[in-house]
Backbone:
């Protein structure tokens, strides 16, 4: 099962959600692959001990069909979680692949070689709706949309939903929105409650029951190359991401 974590807004918790949901599922005993499609490579950097020692990266695999994706998959420090080696070179994908007739299918094709080995493949995406994100949406069965609990949170949602519809029409008819997760939630403010109401009006039952609160521990953990489950296992962030992972697994089944 392949799940793209997408929202073309930056700073809404895509990477934090990708890493911690992937870690939570792996810690439940499943085999998980995290594919980092963001040229900033924060998912890779935050989970793989020494990504610099790899010569090749996901960019090379997407550019050249003779490169094997196995060669750019690393074990993370979490048992059961593997992660793609992604580097800043990913930023060259769009200008390099732009004219190729199968440009949007490169990730889907590359994952064919390994998808049977994993229970879940999660794809972290960059804050754009360009070719990189389209590769993720073409490869995925499901989309998980993190939405930051903030005043302008729904700005751009129309573009995202329109893009999803276009991908369904042209390349991936079975693509489904698995759900929406509210991130960076601060329950003390009236604004946060108002924002939840607005998100619920747009997404209805797609809204996950568990919200991710704003938390210093979640903000700190990537700097120590740890998921929240080793950095602060009894924190509220760990509890919430575990619940989001459970909800994701049960929604993906039904
Ligand atoms: P995106 O991938 O959508 O750009 P990130 O996951 O990188 O978003 O999050 C943006 C910033 O907010 C990062 O510095 C991250 O550490 C921080 N952050 C994410 N989620 C939380 C949270 N629940 N509480 C506090 N800080 C968070
Ligand atoms: Mg990110």
Residues:
């Amino acid at each position: 099962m392949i799940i793209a974590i997408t929202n073309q807004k930056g700073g809404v918790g895509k990477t934090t959600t990708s890493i911690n949901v992937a870690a939570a599922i792996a810690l439940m005993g499943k085999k998980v692959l995290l594919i980092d499609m963001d040229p900033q490579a924060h998912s890779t950097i935050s989970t793989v001990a020494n990504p610099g020692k790899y010569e090749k990266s996901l960019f090379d695999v997407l550019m050249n069909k003779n490169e094997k994706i196995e060669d750019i998959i690393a074990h993370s420090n979490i048992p059961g979680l593997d992660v793609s080696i992604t580097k800043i070179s990913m930023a060259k994908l769009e200008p390099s692949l732009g004219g190729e007739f199968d440009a949007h299918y490169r990730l889907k094709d590359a994952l064919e070689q390994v998808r049977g080995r994993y229970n879940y493949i999660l794809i972290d995406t960059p804050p754009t709706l360009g070719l990189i994100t389209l590769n993720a949406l073409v490869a995925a069965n499901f989309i998980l949309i993190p939405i930051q609990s903030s005043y302008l949170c729904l700005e751009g949602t129309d573009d995202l939903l329109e893009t999803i519809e276009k991908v369904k029409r042209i390349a991936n008819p079975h693509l489904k929105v698995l759900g929406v997760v509210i991130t960076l939630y601060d329950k003390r403010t009236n604004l946060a409650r108002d924002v939840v109401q607005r998100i619920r009006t747009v997404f209805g039952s797609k809204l996950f029951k568990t919200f991710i609160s704003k938390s210093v521990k979640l903000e700190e953990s990537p700097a120590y190359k740890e998921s929240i489950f080793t950095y602060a296992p009894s924190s509220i962030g760990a509890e919430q991401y575990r619940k989001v992972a459970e909800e994701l697994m049960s929604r993906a089944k039904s």
User: Anything to note?
Assistant: DSSP finds eleven helices and seven strands in the chain. The chain has a mean pLDDT of 95. The longest helix spans residues 236-253.
